[in-house]
Amino acid sequence: MIMSVLVGLMIEGAIITKGTRSGLTYRNPRPEWAGELEALERSSFPTSDPEDLYCKEDLEILANDFPQGGFVGFDNDKPVAMGLGIQVLFDEDNPLHTVHDVMPGNGDSGHRPKGDWYYGTSIAVRSEYRRRGIGAELYELRKDVCRSLNLRGIVAGGVMPEYVNHKHEMTADEYIEQVREQNIYDPTLSFQQENGFELVRALPNYIMNPDIDNYAALIIWRNNDFRSQQ
Questions:
Q1: Which of 29, 75, 117, 127 registers the highest number of CB atoms within 10 A of its CB?
Q2: Can you spell out the DSSP letters for 81-124?
Q3: Contact status, residue 66 vs residue 32, Cβ threshold 8 Å
Q4: Using CA atoms, how far apart are residues 77 and 8, in angstroms rounded to an integer?
Q5: Contact (Cβ atoms closer than 8 angstroms) between residue 176 and residue 153
Q6: CA 58 to CA 108: how far, in whole Å?
Q7: What is the DSSP letter of 51?
């Protein structure tokens, strides 16, 4: 059984930065933190299908495969937020995919070292720490990864929680267009758009979430500093 309250960790690893608004200290993930990070993920998404979330074993593998692509936010010695990701080969001409296409599991984190895009696989924040600027801080850390590794940008499947109130009157793509045009406010997609992401299109059957008919939104942030190696 996963504990609902996170306890402090024996912390090792250099502090990457301290959040100017949140006051959290950010470190790259370590395999020995995997159990605590699994609890953080599941407490942040209590209604999600566990099959669509990271488990302890997945987090251990990811922390070994691509630690520099992830960030864990600590309040003193307690992990209260994380932003994780992997490098992928993403084809904008064939963008449809599901979360399990990107994160296969069964020993495969999905990280492809030759990938030229960063895929944001999870942002999780404890409920009592939300609205403190943590999401924006994690996005900036991800953008810094793209700049330092010369990646094209960030791709992710953005959840669209407000769609539950509109799905009987419009398609998922129509909803995304309304959010893009700022006619509808979605607490997740609107925030992502404010942070420089394009709201591209709907991704059907992305995750198991009957409330929004299993849709997510394809979102993209482009790294203007990217330089082609060809």
A1: 29
A2: EEEEEEEE---TTS----HHHH--BTTB----TT-SEEEEEEEE
A3: no
A4: 5
A5: no
A6: 8
A7: G
Give ∠ CA 96-191-47 in degrees, rounded to 5. 65
pLDDT higher at 172 or 131:
172
Residues 80, 45, 26, CA angle at the centre, nearest 5°? 25
Q: What is d(CA 69, CA 5) in angstroms, rounded to the nearest whole number?
A: 26
Is residue 219 within 8 Å of 200, Cβ to Cβ? yes
Domain that includes residue 43, residue range:
17-222
Q: Is the pLDDT of residue 1 over 50?
A: no
The CATH number linked to 77 is 3.40.630.30
Measured distance CA(223)–CA(47) in Å, rounded: 33
Q: Do the Cβ atoms of 175 and 68 come closer than 8 Å?
A: no
Structure tokens that stand for 27 in this block: 């470190």
CA distance 216 to 170: 15
CB 217 within 8 A of CB 158: yes
230 belongs to a structural domain = no
DSSP 70: -
Question: Per-residue pLDDT tens for 50-101?
Answer: 888 899 999 999 999 999 999 999 999 999 999 999 999 999 999 999 999 9
Q: 210 or 137: which carries more pLDDT confidence?
A: 137
Query: Does some domain include residue 227?
Result: no
> Does some domain include residue 173?
yes
pLDDT (0 to 100) of residue 7: 45
**pLDDT confidence bin for 45, thresholds 50/70/90:** confident
Structure tokens at 12: 């090792």
